[in-house]
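Re: [ENG-882] Designed sequences occasionally contain unexpected residues at chain ends

Forwarding the minimal case from QA. Structure tokens:
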């Protein structure tokens, strides 16, 4: 007897398989499902894995009663739902808490910032220990830390290690080895992303 399911076919390539494994586990996928996880759920799984392989300066980590702040700038409802599904899950020993930010001042205290749209100046983040992630075109080249890129129908990512280091974040060698590109830009470029 052979069975066919949409998820294994949709989850090809080892970086995508890693993300799909997380997504399928997070959202309780079963073999009876007809559709593969949507793009937003896969992006949320990628962001969760990026955070798992990031080391923040000890002073920026929440205490035992705190939470890892996963922030979103910009409106994208499907992505918001995928991030909210991560709330309460453990990350670095504390639960994840999602929140939407609309201004630069609100980013202070975020551990991860996903930029769903442009309009926030990366240069003004200075040395804040905030892991910045986006699927905006050229994000890593323009001073973001991790840019999600669609290549040949697959979701891949680029890393700007120099920007992460200048913010006091350490990205694991495992994460860097999976990136399609690793940039060593030393600082965020001026301007608004």
């Amino acid at each position: 007897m052979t069975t066919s399911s949409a998820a294994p076919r949709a989850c090809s390539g080892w970086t995508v398989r890693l993300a799909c494994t997380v997504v399928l586990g997070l959202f309780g996928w079963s073999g009876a499902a007809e559709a593969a996880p949507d793009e937003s759920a896969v992006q949320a799984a990628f962001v969760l894995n990026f955070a798992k392989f990031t080391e923040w300066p000890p002073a920026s980590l929440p205490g035992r009663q705190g939470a890892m702040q996963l922030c979103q700038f910009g409106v994208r409802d499907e992505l918001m739902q995928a991030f909210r599904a991560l709330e309460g899950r453990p990350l670095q020993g504390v639960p994840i808490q999602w929140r939407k930010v609309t201004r630069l001042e609100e980013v202070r205290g975020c551990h991860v910032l996903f930029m769903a749209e442009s309009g926030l100046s990366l240069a003004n983040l200075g040395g804040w220990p905030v892991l910045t992630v986006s699927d905006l075109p050229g994000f890593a080249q323009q001073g973001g830390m991790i840019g999600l890129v669609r290549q040949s129908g697959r979701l891949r990512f680029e890393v700007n290690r120099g920007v992460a280091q200048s913010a006091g974040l350490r990205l694991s060698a495992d994460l860097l080895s999976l990136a399609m590109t690793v940039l060593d830009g030393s600082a965020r470029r001026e301007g608004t992303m």
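QA comment: On inspection the terminal residues look reasonable. Strands lie at 54-55, 68-73, 90-91, 94-101, 112-115, 131-134, 146-151, 154-160, 170-171, 181-183. Proposing we downgrade this to a documentation issue.
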